[in-house]
Specification:
Helices cover 18% and strands 24% of the residues. The N and C termini lie far apart (31 Å). With 83 residues, it is an alpha+beta fold.
């Protein structure tokens, strides 16, 4: 049981640095994991494909396509947030 808890805690890692739309908040840090993590959203954000959570959850608000792939292309393509 302790091993499973340790595995779950290490699967999601806090991501420092600039990630599109991420709010830097110690109470709600942004986490990314290439593997499943509880409470995470799966998709591409900031150029990372995998599981995301925290950071103010900018993917739930209207955003541009560029926010997904972390590049400048797609700034003119806006869409509603994902839940």
């Amino acid at each position: 049981m302790i091993g499973a808890v340790a595995l779950l805690l290490t699967a999601c890692v806090a991501v420092p640095g600039p990630v599109p739309g991420i709010v830097i908040d110690p109470a709600d840090p942004y986490y990314y994991s290439p593997e499943y993590c509880v409470g995470c959203w799966y998709g591409q954000w900031g150029g990372r494909i995998g599981y995301h959570r925290g950071g103010g959850r900018p993917w739930e608000r209207p955003h541009s396509e560029a926010d997904h792939h972390g590049e400048n292309r797609g700034r003119d393509i806006m869409h509603e947030g994902h839940r």
